[in-house]
Amino acid sequence: MNIHEYQAKQIFAQYDVPTPRGMIATTPDEAVANAEKLGGNIWVVKAQIHAGGRGLGGGVKLAKSLEEVRTLADEILGMTLVTHQTGPEGKLVQKVYIEEGADIQDELYLSVVLDRAAEMPIIMASTEGGMDIETVAEKTPEKIIKVAVDPAFGFQGYHGRELVFGLGITDKAEQKKMIQFAQKLYKLYMEKDAEMIEINPLIKTGSGDFLALDGKMGFDDSALYRHPEIEAMRDISEEDPDEREAAQYGLSYIALDGEIGCMVNGAGLAMGTMDTINYMGGTPANFLDVGGTANAQTVAKGFEIILKNPNVKAIFVNIFGGIVRCDRIANGILEATKMVDVNVPVIVRLDGTNAAEAAEILKNANIENIITATDLGDGAAKAVAAAKGEK
Amino acid sequence: MSILVNKDTKVIVQGFTGGEGTFHSEQCMAYGTNIVGGVTPGKGGQEHLGKPVFNTVKEAVEATGATVSMVFVPPAFVGDAVMEAAAAGIELAVIITEGAPVRDMQAAKACAVKNGMMTIGPNCPGIITADECKIGIMPGNIFKKGNVGLISKSGTLTYEGANQVVNEGYGITTAVGIGGDPIIGLSYKQLLQMFQDDPETEAIVMIGEIGGDLEIQAAEFIKENITKPVVAFIAGQSAPPGKRMGHAGAIISGSAGTAKEKMDALSAAGVEVVISPAEIGKAVKKVLS
C-alpha cells in the first residue's frame, strides 16, 4: 500500500526525521488559511497523488504571495496530473500540500528498500538529488552509495560513516546530522514494515540542516494488520474501483484492454494463461487470480467483475487445483450463471484436486454457454476462437 | 533417487490441526508421505489423523526423529514457527503459508541459515518426490515417476508443467515450488545443482516469472555448471508494466526484471525457452529425444 507525501511526512515527524513544515488543503480558501498559519513569505503548493514526477507534470509550484497560493491551489486542485508514473490517463488531484519555502543549498537522494539478493534492507544515497534515480543508476552508477543493514545487528556506526564519506560530507556537525537522519529512517522502515521509503530530494539548507523535501512510502500489505494507523491512511480514490472490489473478495484483478476475460488460480498460471492467449492470436481482457480460498461466491463475484467490461467476448476459466478444489469452482460457475447474466461463451478447463467431481457437476448442469476444454492449449485455442465468433 | 525428500523422510506438520493443515496432511498421508506427527500449541497429547500432536517442535523432534516440517501456520505466526523449527534441529522447513510479512520472513530465513536449516517457500506449493513423498498442497496424482526435475516460482504452473511432462510420456523425479515472495528459501541455483548431481534426473524444467533477477542469476549458473538439458518458461510476457510509485527496488540488481530480459539470458545460456506454458511438454520431449 502506498501513501501520499503529506502522510509520509506525518510519519517522518513521529520519528523526528526533519521536514519543512506544511499543511494539507482541499480548497483554495483552506490553502490560503494554511499558508497564513505557516507564516513566511514563500510557499510551495504540491499536488498530492500517488506518483512521482509531479514537479515536471506541473503539480508542484512556488508561490511568493498569499494571492499566488490561492491562484496555484485553484489551478492544481481538480487538475488531472500526468507524469511518467501515472500512465497516460493521469490522476485527479484532490488535495494540495502547502509547505513553507526552504533554503536549498544542496540536493541529495536517500532511500531504504529491501535488497532481495542480500535478503536485508539497503540504504541508498546519492549526491544527485532531484534527478530520476533510475537515470543516475544507468549513467553514473558510481554516484549511488549502497549500505546493507542486517536487522539482526541493526544500524551501526560504520553504516553511517560509509554514507557520509560516500556523500562527501566533511563538516563534523553535518556528518552527525546526516547519520542520525539515516538511522531514524532505517528505524522507521523496520518498525512500520515499510516496503520502501524514498526521499528525493533530501536537501541541505544554508544553515547546514538536512530536510526531507519529498517523501514516498510504500508498505508491505501482508503486515498492515499490525499497523492500523497506516491502514487508516489508505486513500481509496487512488485505487482502481474494480480492483478494490475484487480485493474485498480475495480476488486479484487487473483490467487490460483485450477481449478474453480470464479467471485463473495462481498468479503464475494467470500470467501464463494471458501469455498463451496472446501466443494463440487473442488478447486478454484482464488478469484475475482467484487465490487459494476460492469458493462459489468469490467465483460468482469474479464473473460479475469480468462482465462489467463491455469488451469481453469470451471468458476462459483455467483452474489447476491444488489448494483450490475444482468442485468449488464448478459450483461457483453454476452460481454465477444464476446471479449474473453470462451472455458470452465460457471456456472451462478444470484440472487437479477434485477435477472429476467438478466435471460431473458441470456435465449435470448442462448449461449452453459452457464449453469444456481438456488442457491449457486447447482452452486458450477455444477461447480465442469463441472471441472471434467461431465455434 | 530424487532430491531432498523420499519415502523414508520423517515429516511433522506445524499447524497440524487447522483446516488447511488437516485437509492437506490427509492428502499427503494418502500419497504415502511419512507424516509422524504434528505441532499445535495447546493441543499436545492429543491425537489427530491417527498421529500424535505436540505442543512444541522440540518435543515433536525428540519423540519422532522428524527431519522435515511442513508449515501451515497462519501468516502472523509463521516467522515464529520457522524459527522454532530451526532451533529444534529440523533440516528442511517447507513453508506453505501465503501472506507472511516480509520482515518476519527476513528474520526467519536468517535464523534458518544460522541454524543450518534449509527452507522452501513461503507462499509455495511445496515439494514432491513422485510416488514417494509429497510435502505440500499439490495434487499428487499428476506427478508420475520419471526423469525430469522441476523448479517453479508459481504453484499452479508447477502442476501445469508436471502434467504436460507426464502427458508426453515422461515423469518427474522431484518437483519444487520455490514461491514468489521477496524473501524465499532454496532458489534456482541450489536446486539446479541438486538436480545436476541426482543421477536419476535427466532434464530440468525451470518456470519463472517477471520481477527480481533470480532467473538471470540462474542463467549465469546454468552456463557454468549445468550440463543436463534445461527447459524454461517465464510467465508475464504480456503483463502490463506495473503502476509503481517508485523504482528504487529495481536499481539494486540493475535489472528491470522483464520476461524478455530473462528469456534472452536463458536462451544465451543454452536453455530451451518456450513462449507459452502449453509448450513445456513438447520442449521436454525435444531435449530428451
How does this structure look, described?
The complex is a heterodimer of chains A (391) and B (289). Chain A is an alpha+beta fold. Chain A folds into 3 domains: 1-19 and 103-237, ATP-grasp fold, B domain (D-amino Acid Aminotransferase, Chain A, domain 1, 2-Layer Sandwich); 21-101, ATP-grasp fold, A domain (Dna Ligase, domain 1, 2-Layer Sandwich); 240-387, Succinyl-CoA synthetase domains (Rossmann fold, 3-Layer(aba) Sandwich). Chain A is built from 13 helices and 19 strands. In chain A, strands 1, 8, 9, 10, 11, 12 and 13 form a 7-stranded antiparallel sheet that branches. In chain A, strands 2-7-3-4 form a 4-stranded antiparallel sheet, covered by helices on one side. Chain A has a 4-stranded parallel sheet with strand order 15-17-18-19, with helices on both faces. In chain A, strand 18, helix 12 and strand 19 (370-372) form a beta-alpha-beta unit. Chain A is elongated, with a radius of gyration of 26 Å. The model of chain A has no long low-confidence stretch (mean pLDDT 92). Chain B folds into 2 domains: 10-120, NAD(P)-binding Rossmann-like Domain (Rossmann fold); 126-288, Succinyl-CoA synthetase domains (Rossmann fold), CATH 3.40.50.261. Chain B is an alpha/beta fold. Chain B has a 7-stranded mixed sheet, with helices on both faces. Chain B has a 7-stranded mixed sheet with strand order 9-8-11-10-12-13-14, sandwiched between helices. Chains A and B meet through strand 8, strand 9, helix 4, strand 11 and helix 9 of A and helix 4, helix 5 and helix 8 of B.
